[in-house]
Automatic annotation (TrEMBL):
This is DUF2267 domain-containing protein. It comes from Pontibacter burrus. Pfam families: DUF2267. InterPro entries: DUF2267 (IPR018727), DUF2267_sf (IPR038282).
């Protein structure tokens, strides 16, 4: 079986465009930064086997981004409420947080947008694991 880099690039780009559409932006760099921050926040809430199961659904390029700087001995990170969740996502995008996330509401909007894009792109089982890894207050934000 040949390894086709162009197909992998196309799959990753399609998902990035889906995220950008949900974020209501044409700026793919911004969409990529936000997607990466939310993916890393999600990853850090999951146990190792759950993170691997979730990542198996992502295009190969996004799998690499998902596991970039992963520290499996430090997960799952405890997040007690939506304020901590917002700050955790902000910290995952520390490089560009002042431009991408001016208000806490923008972070929660971004989280919901990324989750919506993932719902269009991967199977329900891994997303249900993600949702269950979040406390009730954060899960309710997905319903808004």
């Amino acid at each position: 079986m040949a390894f086709n880099f162009e197909d992998n690039k196309k799959d990753a780009t399609v998902l990035l465009h889906t995220v950008a559409n949900e974020l209501q932006t044409d700026d793919l760099n911004k969409a990529g930064r936000i997607f990466r921050a939310v993916l890393h926040a999600i990853r850090d809430r999951l146990h190792l086997h759950e993170a691997v199961h979730f990542a198996s659904q992502l295009p190969i390029i996004w799998k690499g981004i998902f596991f970039d700087q992963y520290e499996p001995d430090k997960v799952p990170v405890k997040i007690r409420d939506s304020d901590e969740w917002v700050n955790y996502i902000r910290n995952k995008n520390a490089y560009a947080a002042n431009n991408d996330f001016l208000l806490d509401d923008e972070i929660m909007f971004s989280f919901r947008a990324v989750f919506a894009a993932l719902q269009k792109s991967i199977s329900e089982g891994p997303l249900q694991l993600v949702k269950e890894s979040l406390n009730q207050e954060i899960q309710e934000q997905l319903e808004v």
